[in-house]
Specification:
Blueprint (H helix, E strand, L loop, with lengths): L2 H25 L4 H27 L5 H22 L7 H23 L8 H18 L10 H26 L1 H7 L1
Length: 186
């Protein structure tokens, strides 16, 4: 790992470390105080996703580690948050199953592509999907009543729905872009 790739990769690693803290915070009764801190950890972790990508592009130091581990850190963050929101009745379990199923599928075809020496970085559809997920989950975690947003929960669910549409669209796009790996494999 070169000095130039150190910071983006450390930020990706930090996201992995923040996930257990988020899970812990969401495990407690969601008082305004606890919900705010859970939101802060989630928002900070989501910010590190943007920052590591920005630094890697700005200093032209994208790495294979970053291309592979950054999406995994994102998936772990989103998956953990969604799973912890199920018992809080903020998101239905089937939504989590759909999101997790898509992520496992994409990870699988990325792994298959990697076995054929093809590294697949996140595309713009995936980045848009991630933003909808981050904002939607963030609004679901944030304490209700602190923001001047009427129907905060419903607004968050709309964002989650938009992320699901983008998830399915980007999964179809990845599958289409990597269609040759399916032909080569059979």
């Amino acid at each position: 790992m070169t000095q130039r790739t150190l910071w983006p990769n450390l930020l990706t690693g930090l996201r992995f470390v923040l996930v257990p803290l988020l899970v812990l915070l969401l495990s407690f009764e969601q008082t305004t105080f606890m919900a705010f801190w859970a939101w802060f950890v989630f928002a900070f972790a989501a910010f590190t996703d943007w920052l590591d990508g920005y630094l890697a592009r700005k200093f032209d130091c994208e790495s294979i580690f970053g291309k592979l581990m950054d999406p995994l850190a994102d998936k772990l963050l989103v998956t953990a948050a969604l799973l912890m929101l199920i018992p809080l009745d903020r998101v239905p379990a089937w939504v989590c199953l759909l999101v997790i199923g898509r992520e496992i599928f994409i990870t699988g075809i990325r792994g298959l592509a990697a076995s054929m020496n093809k590294v697949v970085a996140a595309d713009n559809l995936g980045k848009i999907k991630a933003n909808f997920q981050y904002y939607g989950i963030g609004f679901l975690i944030f304490p209700v009543g602190l923001l001047p947003i009427p129907y905060q929960h419903q607004f968050a669910i709309v964002l989650i729905w938009l992320s699901i549409v983008m998830s399915l669209w980007s999964a179809a796009n990845y599958t289409y872009q990597l269609r040759d790996i399916f032909v080569e494999e059979s």
